[in-house]
Design goal:
Layout (H helix, E strand, L loop, with lengths): L9 H54 L6 H12 L4 E7 L5 E4 L18 H10 L3 E4 L5 E9 L12 E9 L1 H52 L14 H82 L7 H32 L7 E4 H19 L2 E6 L6 E4 L1 H17 L5 E13 L3 E12 L6 H4 L11 H7 L5 H11 L4 E5 L2 E4 L16 E12 L14 H10 L2 E4 L3 H13 L5 E3 L2 H10 L4 E4 L8 H10 L6 E6 L4 H9 L4 E4 L4 H14 L2
Parallel strand pairs: 7-9, 14-15, 14-16, 16-17, 17-18
Antiparallel strand pairs: 1-2, 1-5, 3-4, 4-5, 6-8, 9-10, 10-13, 11-12, 11-13
Helix pairs in contact: 1-4, 4-5, 5-6, 5-13, 6-11, 7-8, 8-11, 14-15
């Protein structure tokens, strides 16, 4: 860990601070002492010079009024010259000629040849004001005294008119040196005392702060290194002692928590060992579950294929069987066979749909649809059942719902078929009433998003409180007697619930004052509506595109003459190994006006393509010698003209559909064969190749 260079440890920083502060204080006090001493020296010397110059100028004024004054002047000059600090004494006449001086060589010379030359302007000022002046030399080492004196009276004068100058140059060097020495002695005494005080202060901090902080630091380092038994053991009553107490408490707590933590770690290691064993067992279980799920999917796919193959024969033959010359009883037999086959097919589809939902493989499609058309088509499809039971089947659609919506219309139709079919099934009299409403939940530049709510109300037997909560569970019906009386797999509502959830909505029911499912938070129940029957509600999310983004509708169906012309031009190959399925497919195609060629396996398909061109191939997936998937791969890899290949198979799972599309098939039809599906794919081919 990098240690910062500042601040320094206390044992170094405290002496450094004391030395720095003491030194600055000593230097500051010494400088102040020197300045004050120099100021006092200058002031006292100035007073002395002022008194001497004043007295001397008055004496000279007196002597110049007497006739014999030369000896007196010499005496005065001699006395002044005896002061060692008086460097220069001058008596200057009115012509600035030196009359007397303590330096004899300067007599009768001009002041311009002396150091007094720089003060000639002061001479003029003093003569004019007749007042003396004391000034400090430019180098501040001399005091200059300039005083006026009246010279002796001339013969024709009554009073003296000439003004001379008495000039003193007093040297301050010796006095300043003496003052400096005195200040230095005082400063040394002060700084010595200050040094002793700082040493005492440092020793005090060393005993009361530095050593004790070091103890705390050493104890903290020991604790950080894992020595949980370390304690500071400081004495006293100051803040460091309080820190010491807090540190010791912290060390005790850490030691206690460490012991607890070690015990917890031991327990955790035991738990982790157990979890490892459990995870190993869980991994084995997951592998087994994956294998079981895969086996279940394979079983459902195989069962679907095996059941749909004979179902194709049963339902297919009922579709193409001529009924024109049959008696009513014979027609009833045919319709009974057909309806039984469709009922069995519905059960198979429910089981396959539930398997897809359970495995998460069910994917919703996004297509443009019209809600009114879907509800109307469902009601038309179920109207025969309603008319048979003599009950009303009515619907109301809010006109504010957008005409064009985007969503999975086939799954919406499946939900409506299930709920409306159940309502009709459990209603003896009265009616079934469908209502649809919408609420705008999002609006942007490209499209609007709506939450649509559809309600199916019936006047049937209703559901009691003991059974209403079981409705949306798979393989469950409200009452076992219902399954005996009305039939069904018990999967319809569970599938509807999962489809609604995938579409972003929720489903719920109210019956006989009971509520089950997941109603929205803002939904208000019809508490006062205790009619006999049930109301199923569900919501889903759909988008409404702007007019500019609408997908153009498909072109209208071709006229019968156009169909006939295109039918005559299509060459169709049927690849199917099952004889019954061959008959059904052949009769179905003949009914539509086509005469197909037949291949019993994939090898025959490839051989026939060598000699014959085909527009459309209806390809079964599972065939002996070579299956339809392998045959399609080889056809797509060849350089010959590519036919339009449609999977015609009893494998109805989404995975099977994807396999067919991945190898290059153009479309997918599940068995049993429905004439409308055959018509759809052939019409689609004709439109794309017209």
């Amino acid at each position: 860990m990098k240690i910062k260079s500042f601040p320094l440890p206390l044992r170094f920083s405290i002496p450094a601070v004391l030395i720095l502060c003491g030194g600055l204080l000593g230097i500051t006090s010494f400088n102040q002492e020197i300045a004050e001493t120099y100021q006092k020296t200058e002031l006292s010397t100035k007073n002395y010079v002022q008194i001497s110059a004043g007295q001397t100028s008055r004496i000279l004024d007196y002597l110049y009024r007497r006739s014999n004054i030369e000896e007196a002047e010499i005496t005065i000059i001699s006395q002044l010259g005896s002061d060692p600090n008086l460097n220069l004494v001058l008596v200057v006449n009115d012509k600035n000629i030196i009359h007397l001086s303590n330096r004899y060589e300067l007599q009768d010379t001009s002041i311009s040849k002396t150091t007094a030359a720089i003060y000639s302007a002061e001479f003029t000022t003093v003569r004019n004001n007749l007042a003396g002046n004391i000034i400090l030399s430019p180098d501040k080492n001399k005091l200059i005294a300039i005083y006026p004196i009246f010279l002796q009276v001339l013969p024709n004068e009554i009073r003296p008119s000439r003004v001379g100058i008495l000039f003193f140059e007093y040297d301050l060097t010796l006095k300043k040196q003496q003052a400096y020495n005195d200040a230095l002695k005082r400063s040394l005494i002060f700084n010595g005392s200050l040094t002793i005080f700082c040493l005492g202060l440092w020793f005090f901090f060393e005993l009361t702060l530095t050593r004790r902080v070091s103890q705390l630091v050493n104890a903290s380092n020991s604790l950080a290194e894992g020595n949980l038994n370390v304690r500071t053991k400081l004495s006293g009553s100051d803040e460091l002692f309080q820190i010491s107490i807090a540190f010791d408490r912290m060390a005790n707590k850490i030691q206690e928590n460490t012991i607890i933590l070690q015990q917890e770690l031991i327990k955790r290691e035991i738990i982790e060992t157990q979890l490892t064993e459990s995870n190993a067992q869980l991994s084995i279980s997951n592998v087994q579950l994956i294998s079981a799920t895969q086996a279940k999917s394979e079983f459902l796919a195989n069962m679907s294929h095996e059941i749909r193959t004979p179902m194709n024969g049963i339902i297919g033959m009922t579709q193409i069987f001529p009924t024109a010359n049959l008696t009513e009883e014979q027609k009833d037999f045919i319709y009974t066979i057909r309806d039984s086959g469709h009922a069995l097919l519905t059960i198979i589809n429910d089981i396959l749909d539930f398997s897809k939902i359970e495995s998460g493989n069910l994917q919703l499609e996004q297509r443009q649809f019209v809600l009114t058309e879907i509800i109307k088509s469902v009601c038309n499809l179920l109207s025969t059942q309603a008319d048979t039971k003599k009950i009303n089947l009515e619907y109301f659609i809010d006109p504010h719902i957008p005409t064009n919506l985007i969503g999975d219309d086939s799954r919406l139709r499946q939900i409506l078929l299930n709920l409306i079919g159940n309502a009709i099934k459990f209603t003896k009299s009265g009616g079934v009433y469908i209502t649809a409403n919408s609420k705008l939940i999002n609006n942007d530049q490209n499209c609007s998003e709506y939450q649509l709510t559809i309600s199916i109300k019936d006047t049937g037997i209703g559901i009691d409180s003991d059974n209403v909560q079981k409705l949306f569970q798979p393989f469950t019906q409200a009452d076992t007697s219902i399954s005996r009386k009305y039939g069904g797999t018990g999967l319809g509502l569970a599938i509807s619930k999962n489809l609604v959830n995938l579409m972003g909505g929720t489903i719920w029911v109210e019956s006989l004052g009971n509520i089950a499912g997941s109603p929205p938070d803002d939904w208000i129940a019809h508490k006062n509506d205790h009619h006999q029957g049930s109301i199923f509600h569900f919501t889903f999310i759909a988008k409404s595109p702007l007019s500019a983004n609408l997908i153009p509708t498909e072109s209208p169906e071709p006229s019968p003459q156009q169909k006939t012309n295109s039918q005559l031009q299509l060459k169709i190959l049927l690849a199917e190994d099952n004889k019954v399925n061959q008959k059904v497919a052949t009769f179905t195609l003949k009914k539509l006006g086509y005469i197909p060629d037949i291949a019993n396996n994939g090898l025959e398909v490839l051989a026939m393509l060598e000699n014959q061109f085909y527009d459309v191939i209806l390809m079964d997936m599972q065939m002996p010698e070579m299956d339809g998937v392998t045959a399609t791969k080889k056809i797509r890899q060849s350089t010959q003209y590519q036919p339009y290949i449609v999977a015609l198979t009893a494998n109805a799972l989404e995975a099977d559909r994807q396999i067919c599309l991945d190898v290059g098939m153009n479309d997918f039809i599940t068995k049993p064969i429905v004439i409308t599906e055959i018509t759809r794919v052939l019409s689609k081919y004709s439109q794309t190749h017209s």
